[in-house]
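Good morning C.,

I know you're traveling, so I'll keep this short. The sequence:
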Amino acid sequence: MSKKEISKAVINRLPRYYRYLGDLLEKDVVRISSKELSEKMKVTASQIRQDLNNFGGFGQQGYGYNVEYLHSEIGKILGLDRKYKVIIIGAGNLGQALANYTDFARRGFQIVAIFDIDPKIIGTKIRDIEVQPLEQMEEYIKDNDIDIAALTVPKTSAPLLAADLVSWGIKGIWNFAPTDLHLPSDVTVENVHLAESLMKLSYRLSVKENLKKKEG
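The tokens, ready to paste straight into the viewer:
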């Protein structure tokens, strides 16, 4: 694999390639050309070739791409050839939805524990995982080699919790709290700001609506 720095735009497209190739595998498709893949994904064939060339190409002239092989290789690039232990902090509606999403386990992300501060929730089970009190989280992390912590807590709680997680050895944080986390450079944070995503959708709808008004 090339050691050059890969652009964020390319990295953002990799999970989409992986998903489409997975769909093709389920349909028993053996090989596909960049043109055929581009038609399915609505990305130009040139863009697909450029993206994959960052990692070695994977295609053969006159043949295209072997779907199973390319799916496997992109999985390796995304780190999906290993298993991750994940904890969820916050067992509210969002935390419960994440815990109940079965596809994570299929991708190698095993949710092993859930923590909360609400006495009414502590002790209940979500998909056979008992919600534990937040006070037990430090010991659990140190005893179980946790890879990723998902934060589904209010934004006022997130920075302090994130700092604690880092001090206990967590290197990956999946942040659903509507705030930016400022953490050491060796900690990887993926922010999922749902409200911002909805605002982007609102903007696009607004643009289309304004265009219709101008055309009308």
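Safe travels,
E.
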